[in-house]
Amino acid sequence: MTDSHSHVAHQFDDLAQQQDASNLGMWAFLATEVLFFGGMFAAYAVYRTLYYDAFVAGSQHMDVLLGAINTAVLLLSSLTVALGVHEVKRGNNAGLTRYLLLTITLGLTFLVIKGFEYSHKYADGLIPGVHFTLDGPEHVGLYFILYFVMTGFHALHMIVGVGIMTAMVIMTRRGRFSPEYHNPIEVSGLYWHFVDIVWIFLYPLFYLIRVHP
Amino acid sequence: MKTAPEDVLQKNYITAEYGIRSWLLTRDHKRIALLYLISITLFFFVGGFFAVLMRLELMTPQGDVVSAETYNRLFTMHGVAMIFFFLVPSIPAVLGNFLLPMMLGARDLAFPRLNLLSWYLYMIGGCYTIYAMVTGGIDTGWTFYTPYSTGYSTTNVVPVVVGIFVLGFSSILTGVNFIVTTHKMRAPGLTWFRLPLFVWAQYATSVIILLATPVLAITLALLGVERIFRVGIFDPALGGDPILFQHMFWFYSHPAVYIMVLPSMGVVSELVTCFARRRIFGYRFMAFAVMAIAVLGFLVWGHHMFVSGQSVYAGMAFSALSFFVAIPSAIKVFNWTATLHKGRIEFRTPVLYAFGFIGLFTIGGLTGLFLATLAVDVHLTDTYFVVAHFHYIMVGGAVMGYLGGLHYWWPKMTGRLYHEGWAKFSALILFVGFNLTFFPQFVLGYLGMPRRYYIYPEEFQVLNVLSTAGASILGFGYIIPMVYLLWSLRKPRTAGPNPWNAKGLEWLTPSPPPTHNFDTTPVVTEGPYEYEEKSADDG
């Protein structure tokens, strides 16, 4: 009934069907994620339209350099994920492990830099509801709430992504992947790229309003 | 009869393994469906209990059973339990889980482990919400409108919201599973236009779940942030915008109405064709109509907000778009009727529920048009007319469809037949009780009785007593099926593979089916409802 290949789960007829299914499953899940972040982007659009000056004022307090470094770090991590997929297709599992570890390192770098940014914000009294001393235009608090909620959910997705990539490293070490079977790597890669793309939108929306209003 | 005699020694999905572990760690879609069946039934009775207390309070114009604060908690928790923990998962998680793979000729859903995870998420969200209800409850209304929910309510808003947040991911995982399974795991020859309409309905529902639920999740998350940190996202006193909350909430919660009712429409299409022994009238129209409702459902959320202060032009656009939903809905009702027309209708229990659905959904749908009309809605907003309208859709529609489906597929799920006489009796009782409960509420609403009040002027008492009397009949009507369905489990498994002589791949398997569903994957050569040549042979 099933292919003799040990990676095919009992409900599937063959490996191709299984791969199609898991790819579609991840795309469907990413559609959900788009709407999840979409709700926040909608709130951002509404409030930025209503209180534009407050948003520009809030943006003065962003560390554009750290944001730019983080953008570069994430773009680089997308490259390493793509290279990892390339390596496993060639059957080079050592190369795959190397690129996965590099991806994890870059992900952690991003999170550490983000942590520094958050702690600076705390020191400067820019966290609404926790420690907020900024005497800016009315509604400037909304800018910071959205900043923390949106980048916070993004960071949460990064943490999940690092967890997934760690699981991939373990599976690679156990010799689970081959040029024929490496679907989990591709699917995890899709997720990683998605989280990157969210940041590509977050960076200009929060950091660059003041640079080019 | 082309079905082979059932091998009595063959293991089925229930007897395949024994012990509590084999159930709690199962990845079999049929066993997970039964886990869901038990869990949602519990929540149904929890929600029903709150309803009973409310109807008792409303027997008299004064407040004598509960206090105003308790009453606020009752209608809130009734709504939360019924909508999020019963209606949204009901047909997809129980009947869909059980039947979707079988109708597609598949051995299981695409992601069995995710399917089990989704049940656990449901239980975590459910237990947490029950805990929140027991330790103080919540009084915001199931809509959690800000700023009341974030700034003023002293009840357990955050725990309930967390419970629903977790539950949302259970829905989403089921939706992903159904979409992928329908796309990738159809049996050979099973083209899209040979799919049973039940599958189309599940597919449309899954698309809505996938695109709407995350918006609810983020809305509730923002609500939680505002309440915990006292920052202004939606609270106007703190610089937020409460209308934005309503937009985001209804962006999920209007489509959620279709999450509840579309699966029932799928069930009714199966019941009507089987018991009228007819092909469905206008198959493609039925399939497109269900997808059209799913799409249009995303464009009408503003009709919940006609008096909220949103722009009048937005109100006009939402009103016009809401009327469009009537078109595919009417196509469905007309086509069921046309299918029944000149059919040799066999009056078995499931089709009685289908008739109930068609009649009550029609009333619910038509009164929806009243509410979609801007000028009329201003008069009817927040009155019992609205309450009656959505109960006709959700109880008259969704629950009737669910019960009809449960009766239709019960022999498949358990291998047992229930007592037909009692079943017909309870279908009748439910229909009568339902109408007696909710029809007077249309009149009450028209006369101006507002919803969510625990006292009312004396002239409304007669209608309220009628409604409470109806609710007792309705409650009785829900208990009877519990009794005879459970009773049927004591009988031997004599239902046979296909007691209704129905079409559909699920009826090719023994009842109950084996764990892997099909010994050999079926090959499909015809549409789903080819009843007519067959009945000619029989005649």
Task: Please explain how this structure is put together.
- The complex is a heterodimer of chains A (213) and B (539).
- Chain A has a single domain (15-207), classed as Cytochrome c oxidase, subunit III, four-helix bundle (Four Helix Bundle (Hemerythrin (Met), subunit A), Up-down Bundle).
- In chain A, 75% of the residues lie in helices and 2% in strands.
- Chain A is built from 6 helices and 2 strands, in the order ααααββαα.
- In chain A, strands 1-2 form a two-stranded antiparallel ribbon.
- In chain A, strand 1 (126-127) and strand 2 (131-132) form a beta hairpin.
- In chain A, helix 1 (15-50) packs across helix 2 and helix 3 runs antiparallel to helix 4 (93-123).
- The radius of gyration of chain A is 20 Å and the shape is elongated.
- Helices cover 67% and strands 0% of the residues of chain B.
- Chain B has 16 helices and no strands.
- Chain B has helices at residues 20-24, 29-57, 68-104, 112-134, 148-152, 157-184, 197-229, 242-276, 283-296, 312-340, 349-372, 374-380, 384-414, 420-447, 461-488, 532-538.
- Chain B starts with 19 loop residues before the first helix and ends with a helix.
- The model of chain B is unreliable at 1-8 and 535-539 (pLDDT under 50).
- Classes of the chains: A mainly alpha (213), B mainly alpha (539).
- The A-B interface holds A 9-13, 17, 20-22, 24-25, 28-29, 31-33, 35-40, 42-43, 46-47, 50, 128-130, 138-139, 141-142, 145, 149, 153 and B 101, 106-112, 172, 175-177, 179-181, 183-185, 210-215, 217-219, 221-222, 225, 228-233, 238-241, 244, 248, 251, 516, 521.
